[in-house]
């Protein structure tokens, strides 16, 4: 819990000391990780009081809060490549990095093959829909020229999310309950207060983070796109990343894989279209993903399906997925900014 002090420290340093973009980025990124954990804990505690349906909705919605807030602040600052990069990086990070470490720590075991294939199918379906706004932008001078092409895919994905997610979220929630065992230790009122405070703090930290991306990228000689697709994507998913690996290390490999794959699907069919539609209240955002993003998304989905399609886990499969993530990160590094 001491790490939660990073949030007020980051805010105080930014507004009082004015240290510059590099220090701001490092402190804000570090502060987001315990905040993401706190949001995850608060939604889990609230879900004990609300039942599996509402609990699952809270888990999915507020579990993605850090990424959503970061994305909307980046839209407001006109950092569209950062928005798209952080979102695709989140999907890929869950598919390859989180699932990979979960299999590595969990070792041999049985996976829920049906649930895994459903999640991978949703990611694959989303990737195909992303081609509609992305392909016209491959050769366009201005990738933001036709944001209206993103509305149709976004609406379709949200409809699919609403239709297919209730059962899987309820099941996901039950798995969490079984893994943690016992009743809620927080009251519903306390859970909601903590959730509200943590979300507000996340918004402030996210604004600092987004405002310092370009300076941090310049100081480290990295592209804004790489910083978003790799560093910010990992930070924004800290709760899912840590939670899945810890659960896997405790021997619950089926639950760990469920967390990683369900999180990936939620970003693809819920978070990305939600950002695209909410962005119209600020500035229209085109889901004009670059060829490298579409290619890595498709490749990650196919590779993961081939590896875990048999419903079996192993450390070797985990190493392959982690290696694939390293290759994906290298591709993002080589691609640079558009």
Written account of the structure:
With 338 residues, the protein is mainly α. It has a single domain, classed as A middle domain of Talin 1 (Up-down Bundle). It has helices at residues 6-17, 21-50, 52-63, 65-76, 80-106, 113-134, 151-180, 188-220, 224-236, 238-249, 253-278, 291-308, 315-335; strands spanning 109-110, 312-313. A two-stranded antiparallel sheet has the order 1-2. Helix 3 (52-63) packs across helix 7 and helix 12 runs antiparallel to helix 13. The protein is globular. It starts with 5 loop residues before the first helix and ends with a helix.
List keywords for this structure.
globular; two-stranded antiparallel sheet; 13 helices; A middle domain of Talin 1; 338 residues; 1% strand; mainly alpha
What's the architecture, going by CATH? Up-down Bundle
Number of domains: 1
Q: Which sheet architecture does the biggest sheet show?
A: 2 strands, antiparallel
How would you write the strand order of the largest sheet? 1-2
Which helices and strands appear, and what pairs or packs with what?
Layout: H1 6-17, H2 21-50, H3 52-63, H4 65-76, H5 80-106, E1 109-110, H6 113-134, H7 151-180, H8 188-220, H9 224-236, H10 238-249, H11 253-278, H12 291-308, E2 312-313, H13 315-335
Helix pairs in contact: 1-2, 1-8, 2-3, 2-8, 3-7, 4-5, 4-8, 4-11, 5-9, 5-10, 5-11, 5-12, 5-13, 6-11, 6-12, 7-11, 9-13, 10-11, 12-13
